[in-house]
Amino acid sequence: MVIQTLPFDTLISIDRTSKTPIFRQLANSLTTLIRNGKIKPGHQLPPSRDMAAMIKLNRTTVIAAYDELKVQGWLEVITKKGMFVSTQLPVIDPISFRTDNMLSAMVLVQPNFYQQINFDRPTYREVKPFHLIINDGYPDPRIAPFNSLFNRYKTLLSKADLHGRLIAGNVAGSMLLRSELANFLSRTRALNIETENVLVTHGAQLAIYIAASMVLKAGSTVIVADMNYILADKLFEQLGATLVKVKVDHNGIDVDAIEEICRRSRPDLLYIIPHHHHPTTVTLSAKRRMKLLDIIRRYQLPVIEDDYDYDFHYNNSPILPLASADHSGYVLYVGSISKTLAPSIRLGYLVGGTSFIQQASRLKQLVEIRGDILFEESVAHLFSTGELQRHLRRSIKLYRERRDRFCELLNASLGDFVKFTVPQGGMAVWIVFPENYSISELSNRLYAKGIYMNDGSLYRYSNTVNGIRVGFASLDDAEMDKFAQVLAQVK
Prior knowledge:
The chain is an alpha/beta fold. It has 3 domains: 1-112, Arc Repressor Mutant, subunit A (Orthogonal Bundle), CATH 1.10.10; 132-138 and 400-490, Aspartate Aminotransferase, domain 1, CATH 3.90.1150; 145-389, 3-Layer(aba) Sandwich (Aspartate Aminotransferase, domain 2). Helix content is 41%, strand content 12%. The protein has helices spanning 8-11, 22-35, 48-55, 59-72, 146-157, 160-167, 175-189, 204-215, 230-238, 255-264, 286-299, 354-367, 373-385, 387-414, 439-448, 477-490, and strands at residues 75-78, 82-85, 132-134, 198-201, 221-225, 242-246, 248-249, 252-253, 269-272, 303-306, 331-336, 348-351, 428-432, 451-453, 467-471. The strands form 5 sheets. Strands 4-12-11-10-9-5-6 form a 7-stranded mixed β-sheet, with helices on both faces. The protein has a two-stranded antiparallel sheet with strand order 1-2. The protein has a two-stranded parallel sheet with strand order 3-14. A hairpin with a 2-residue loop joins strand 7 and strand 8 (252-253). Helix 3 (48-55) crosses helix 4, helix 10 packs parallel to helix 11 and helix 14 packs parallel to helix 16. It is globular, with a radius of gyration of 29 Å. The model is unreliable at 93-108 (pLDDT under 50).
């Protein structure tokens, strides 16, 4: 039940010199507010006594206006609750921001004062409570150390003297979290960095945006994989850049092609996902990595290295990031804490030279004055106590088991009908279907059986691609079994 709390005294104008009765003026004003969408169907109006006090009229006048609107069908009385706007209005075309909702007697001009975002997102259906959700590679939030995280948050929240000091802190993020990240990345990725080399962001996507905005301008060129993380591609294009696409195979991006592009005319940026490339999950080979580092140094090529789930390797030790080698300061390193804990934990980071991070911090401040510093401090506490590292070890063991079981079930359900490679790391499997098979129709059939899976349109970069990323890390055994059984039925 929603009671309207609009400023009726400013929205309703009464002309006491008019020949139109005051109760009818009030009724007409309320009708106009309903027509214009300012008062929604099903919303409760203030009681007559309250309305009379707000607009400085006699209560009997308000009652008369309400009675008039009841007769006309605009209002209805619900016993023991009050007066409500009817859900079945005499006129059901309120004005809104939508250009297809217009009153027949009015013309709504759609202003064009903004940029058009050229990005056709796939159509998302409603996710119902009974649906099993198949994502494209996220951690399982059910195993995340939320209790420790929120207990720490509550502890910090109770320390009133702490708030001012934290809010007045560096816009680059919580100093404690930046310090912990610098230590963690140094130990796990051999990055030679200090606290001042780390910028904390509200998710890795914002880190990519800030890094790209610092490098690109209208007319810039960006090398990307021909099958790439689509939101990065669209971000670069929105900044006015032109994409130069390079093939990806089982050894990662084609480094020889990158060198040839640089030889002709050095681009402004290279965006690369060396580990568990999105969407195909392949990893850049050690040989290509060494050659790419040489290209970066020789051509002074700026790079955004997106390493969103580096920590999740299952078969062997990971190849170190490009940022861990001698790159002469040209590699900007992006990572995600969301992939470590849960999708709802929107934290990422950007690593770069000290001067670059100082400038990037100023840009970040234009987008958001500061992040949730108390939350950042709480996450830092997970690092400092070792709980996050223990969570990572548990997660890697569990996700490895889930990967193996999931791939066995895929083989049993789909057999030779599809092609996929068991991923060395990450949280998803890249499945390629026959050329003429409709993944969209498969998605529809799964939906009818209570399973939500995207329709694959997000990965349809060209006519030669008919694949989909299917996440396994967030599925327990029972959920995997259900998915495999239904998949075998509806494929």
